[in-house]
Amino acid sequence: MAPPNGKKKTTSNQSQIRGSS
Predict the structure, then answer these.
(1) Rounded CA gap, 13 and 7, in Å?
(2) Is the C-alpha dihedral spanning 7, 10, 13, 15 positive or negative?
(3) What is the Cα 14 distance to its own chain's centre?
(4) What pLDDT was estimated at residue 2?
(5) Helix (H, G, I), strand (E, B), or coil: what is residue 7?
(6) How far apart are CA 15 and CA 21, in angstroms?
(7) Helices (H), the chain
(8) Where are stretches of biased composition, namely Polar residues (predicted)?
(9) Contact present, 13 and 21 (Cβ < 8 Å)
(10) What is the pLDDT of residues 6-19, one digit of tens each?
(11) What are the backbone angles phi and psi of residue 6, rounded to the nearest 5°?
């Protein structure tokens, strides 16, 4: 499901947002 970009928009975004707040 994750694109071959190496960047998981779903997991990466959630992880970053959670760690940020």
Answers:
(1) 9
(2) negative
(3) 6
(4) 62
(5) coil
(6) 10
(7) 9-20
(8) 11-21
(9) no
(10) 665 555 566 555 65
(11) 85, -5
